Amino acid sequence: MxxxxxARELLDEHRYVVLGTADGHGDPWVSPVFYALDGYSxxxxxxxxxxxHSRNLAVRPRLSLVVYDSTAAIGAAKAVYMTARAAIDPDxxxxxxxxxxxxxxxxxxxxxxxxxxxxxxxxxxxxxxxVLDPTVPRDERTPVSP
Length: 146
Description:
Helix content: 10-25%
Distance between the termini: 14 Å
Oligomer: single chain
Structural class: alpha+beta
Largest sheet: 8 strands, antiparallel
């Protein structure tokens, strides 16, 4: 089985990624967000800067991410796990909108993400990917580079 293709397929077909962040004290927080891809090593999403995960990223830019099939039968889970560094990306709206359109969403208007708008665009640059290996009968993560 081509695990690289498996990872790309999961990332392409799903719409939500779960962000795992931590605040300045190390207290964890997870948040599902709609995402778009800019290649397979950049994950883009929109969030309010006062959202808990956004505040966490302002003090700790390292995060973990997971895209998974929540409809999979027990024992047949499909997931891509990632580690990354995230920051506000004021110049990535074209890439985000291309990714949104590919996932069936409407493009986001630029006036809503400027310094006076309610949202900011975030980019996580992924440094590692793993998949739940469907060829192994237990929960085993295998490194891949989609």
